[in-house]
Design goal:
single chain, 599 residues, alpha+beta, seven-stranded antiparallel beta sheet, 19 strands, binds 6-diazenyl-5-OXO-L-norleucine
């Protein structure tokens, strides 16, 4: 299968781990009564079953979620979710609201919300239309295959931090494009909450204060005078963060549209910033940028319909492949059992082998989309899974060898309105605070997305992903992503779940698990989100699990089956909305901070 042959270790950046090792909520309220009944006419919501988690798991089952009867937004920031609600209350649809949320998030959750990065948006409209907008960054025109190697051919950290790490940002073009095609309001209208938050400021909460504090060495190394570090010290919880430069930038976009960003004074500031630190993004790069309007991956899992993101993200394909493999089993084991985690890990392992080798930007390389997403291919892969034994990745794919590299921000938001429209968006600067470079005069962070290319094919990137030639650096090319914004429908086509995640490759496995917890294990959304998670990405060849998330006997049995078990404090940051009788439930990631708003 693979052409990958050589591997070695890259220096992990200490700051990376911080993003996933997150503060936990405590004091979970007692269970809400068990089942939720289906609604006779209208959306089909199968009855929920009480979940059982391992004794001692820190997020007990049975807690209630926030309910709203008409419209809802869930993101990693209360202020940003509130921006979406403000727009829907003013008559906007879910797309207007998602775009408002996206810009507000760039102000209030700047570690990942952004205008200096990119993302993906999956849309399902009440009239049945669907859309997938790819506003992933692209490699600058002056990018070269070996730009991140030193004179000895060794991989450097320049794809991870500093000016050279940035791809050409797509966020402003993507959000503006989504609004123009599917929204009902003007860019100026939906930008008002973001402009207000940047201009007047907002009170920093502990989550943001922690994020800023952890980013200190990265950001201050490249950007001396940001509002996040007044007088060089991180802004503290309870203080007001005011971003006047950013407010001016957002106002320029409101007045002149995306041109302000790609051709006007904001573009000049961005290019001047790049030139200051040896970056290569030029005005020509910015002028050339356009989002790609793609056909969503449309697949089924049992009687449900799934809509997700096609390449340049690997998310939809890899999730589909994993779910298709699991669908081959006439009955699936109970949640939490040894066999459940074994099958889950084995399915993810196989899907990631294909992901890492076969996927890339479809404008540059051939991607066997039909094959990888077909049920017959999944049937063949299912036959390679031994019920009793783990298969080493090198045995599924003989040329793959084990490799060690620590994985480690991205942010996902989901919005639904009262007209049947739903939007799932994931956006990122790559790891938290991107490249560390803040555009002076324009007030925003730039991404370090170039590291999502196979900067040296066969060598792991910062998430330990070992990727091939398909994803080598080429000018104008989109780097492969794991972002998986997804909308699940019931058998009548009504929106059932809107979700996605942050966390590099764990995005795919985390999103898949929340879907499986709801569709297979019939958990409430809150339980589906709280349930302990696992992750397998082929290489490193290990089954990662959450600390306290597996009973000792299950852990022992998985080891005895040959799984190399790897413990992490927390896996993945998912934000999700689920239909329930008479409305919606929203759950921001229970392992960290988030904002759910609705009415
Ligand atoms: O596009 C991707 O797959 C990565 N740039 C996502 C990075 C990420 O989720 C980091 N978050 N925790």
């Amino acid at each position: 299968m693979s052409k990958l042959v050589a591997f070695s270790v890259r220096t992990p950046r200490a700051a990376l781990a911080a993003g996933l090792i997150v503060a936990l909520l405590s004091g979970c309220p007692r269970a809400r009564p068990g089942g939720v009944m289906g609604v006779a006419s209208g959306p089909v919501i199968p009855e929920r079953v009480a979940a059982v988690f391992p004794t001692g798991w820190r997020l007990p089952a049975g807690a209630s979620a926030t309910f709203a009867s008409q419209a809802m937004a869930v993101s990693n920031s209360d202020y940003a979710s509130e921006a979406a609600i403000e727009i829907m209350r003013a008559g906007g649809n879910a797309i207007d609201a998602a775009v408002a949320l996206g810009f507000a998030l760039a102000v209030t959750w700047p570690e990942a919300g952004n205008i200096g990065g990119g993302g993906y948006m999956v849309i399902k409209l009440g009239d049945g239309r669907t859309a997938a907008i790819d506003y992933r960054e692209i490699a600058p025109l002056a990018a070269t295959r070996n730009m991140f190697l030193d004179v000895n051919g060794k991989l450097t950290d320049k794809s991870i931090e500093g000016h050279l790490a940035s791809g050409v940002p797509g966020a402003v073009a993507g959000l503006a494009g989504a609004l123009a095609k599917y929204g009902t309001m003007s860019l100026s209208q939906v930008l008002q909450p973001a402009i207000r938050l940047a201009r007047d400021g907002f009170v920093v909460d502990t989550a943001l204060a922690g994020s800023i504090s952890r980013a200190r060495s990265l950001v201050t190394a490249y950007s001396p005078n940001t509002p996040y570090f007044p007088n060089g010290d991180p802004i503290a919880a309870g203080e007001r963060l005011v971003q006047p430069d950013f407010a001016r930038t957002l106002q320029a976009i409101a007045t002149d549209g995306p041109r302000a960003f790609y051709e006007g004074w904001v573009a000049d500031s961005l290019v001047a910033e790049q030139a200051r630190g040896g970056g290569i993004i030029t005005k020509a790069d910015l002028k050339l940028y356009s989002p790609a309007y793609r056909t969503p991956i449309q697949t089924t899992f049992k009687e449900y319909g799934l809509l997700s993101m096609p390449p340049s993200s690997s998310g939809g394909v890899t999730m589909t492949e994993s779910l298709n493999i699991l669908e081959q089993y006439p009955t699936l084991p109970a949640y939490g059992s040894t066999r459940w985690f074994h099958l889950l890990g084995s399915a993810f392992q196989r899907a990631f082998i294909d992901r890492n080798e076969k996927l890339g930007d479809p404008a540059f390389v051939n991607v066997p989309l039909a094959q990888l997403t077909s049920k017959s291919y999944a049937k063949a892969l299912r036959r390679t899974i031994d019920d009793a034994q783990a298969t080493a990745t090198r045995d599924v794919e003989p040329k793959m060898k084990a490799v060690e590299r620590e994985p480690m921000h991205t942010t996902h938001y989901s919005v639904v309105d009262s007209r049947g429209n739903a939007v799932a968006t994931t956006t990122t600067l790559n790891n938290s605070w991107g490249s560390g470079v803040w555009v002076r005069g324009a007030g925003f962070m730039l991404n370090d997305e170039m590291d999502d290319f196979a900067a040296q094919p066969g060598m792991p990137n910062m998430y330990g992903l070992v990727q091939g030639e398909q994803n080598a650096v080429q000018p104008g090319k989109r780097m492969l992503s794991a972002m998986t914004p997804t909308i699940v429908s019931d058998r009548k086509g009504n929106v059932l779940l809107v979700l996605g995640a942050a966390g590099g490759p764990t995005i795919i496995t985390g999103t898949s698990q929340v879907i499986l917890n709801v569709l297979v294990h019939r958990m409430s959304l809150m339980d589906a989100m709280r349930a302990p998670r696992v992750h397998h990405q082929a290489l490193p060849d290990s089954l990662t699990f959450e600390d306290g998330g597996m009973s000792a006997p299950v852990l022992d049995s998985l080891r005895a089956m040959g799984h190399s078990m790897r413990r992490l404090r927390a896996l993945v940051n998912v934000n999700a909305i689920m239909r329930v009788p008479r409305g919606w439930e929203g759950v921001p990631e229970p392992r960290r901070s988030g904002g759910v708003k609705g009415y």
